[in-house]
Amino acid sequence: MAYSPQMTTDVALPSGPSHAAIIRVGGFSLIFAAVAFLGVFSYLAARFNYPDVLDGRAADVLPALLATGDAGRAVWAIYALLPLFWIPAAVGAFHALRARSEGVMRMAMQFAIVSSVAMILGLMRWPSFHWELAQAWAVEPSARPALDAVFNASNRYLGNYIGEFLGELCVSVFFSLSAFAMLDRDSGFPRWVGWLGVLTGAAGLIGMFRNVTTGVASIAEVNNYLLPIWMIVFGVSLLRYSRKGLLR
Predict the structure, then answer these.
(1) In this structure, are residues 38 and 228 in contact, taking their beta carbons and an 8 Å threshold?
(2) For residue 215, what are the domain limits?
(3) Cα–Cα distance between 156 and 46 in angstroms, integer?
(4) Average pLDDT over all residues of the chain
(5) How far apart are CA 49 and CA 24, in angstroms?
(6) Which of 80, 169, 210, 211 fits a disulfide with 124 by CB distance 3.0 to 4.6 angstroms?
(7) Please, are residues 62 and 125 in contact by the beta-carbon 8 Å criterion?
(8) What would the mean pLDDT of 35-47 be, rounded to a whole number?
(9) Does a structural domain hold residue 9?
(10) For residue 215, is it within any domain?
(11) End-to-end C-alpha distance for the chain, whole angstroms
């Protein structure tokens, strides 16, 4: 049978305005999330001694939480929703990097989704579950021993293990896989951006063990500053990619 060009097995990757728009949404999501995280983090650090308060006792934490008032509760609710931006960010990154690393980027998207859900579950405990505990703490002194036990258990499970450990593990893997895909010379991304992502992902994977050992506390502290820088650089890189006619 004679060869026909129409019988080629190559599949053209999507391109055009809609494809570029998806990548731009991903870039803007990363930039917005980085700025929003910094804003919320700064507010909670000033009003709630965050993140040091995470290691506090119920007797100190719950009254302090209630003292932040409706504004503090609203900030916690906003904070809890910010991890949703990992999802459009991951979709945008997938479309930008799939040409050379489709399998890797499909895995990266899945880790981003798991991270988003885990972090939301962990953070949402503050304006909901812990808020109710704080109100009960204020009006039922006799119930405080039981409330203290519930606070410690929920803080450990939802906070330390679901939100921080699982959530940070998955987001660090998402960033690491995306960064490794960028290191391909034909990815269309500067290699220094990829190496910055690898460094950030590695710092996150090490720093997430801060609840197990204090030996990584300094790395976790560095990652608190490195992460928003990487998110902004990642987001800007996606925007530049979508605007330079690099879509294939």
Answers:
(1) yes
(2) 15-243
(3) 23
(4) 89
(5) 35
(6) 80
(7) no
(8) 92
(9) no
(10) yes
(11) 31
Query: Could you give the CA distance from residue 122 to residue 159 in angstroms, rounded to a whole number?
Result: 5
Residues 121, 130: Cα–Cα separation, whole Å = 12
Q: Contact, 171 vs 115, CB < 8 A?
A: yes
Beta carbons of 181 and 100 less than 8 angstroms apart:
yes
Integer Cα distance of 165 and 36 in angstroms? 21
- The rounded distance, in Å, linking the Cα atoms of 132 and 135 is 5
Residue 215 sits at φ, ψ, to 5 deg, of: -65, -20
pLDDT band at 240 (very low <50, low <70, confident <90, very high): very high
Let me know if residue 1 belongs to a domain.
no
Which ranges of 3-85 would DSSP assign to H, the alpha helix? Answer: 17-48, 58-67, 69-81
In 3D space, the residue among 49, 58, 56 whose CA is nearest the CA of residue 141 turns out to be 58
Residue 125 lies in a domain: yes
- Among residues 133, 128, 154, the alpha carbon closest in space to that of 62 is found at 133
Going from the C-alpha of 86 to that of each of 69, 80, 82, 188, 192, the distances in angstroms are 29, 12, 8, 22, 22
Please tell me whether the overall predicted TM-score, pTM, comes out greater than 0.90 for this model.
no
* Widest pairwise Cα distance in the chain: 87
Q: How many domains does the chain have?
A: 1
- Tokens at 124, concatenated: 């949402």
Angle in degrees, 0-180, between the axes of helices 17-48 and 86-123, rounded to the nearest 10: 30
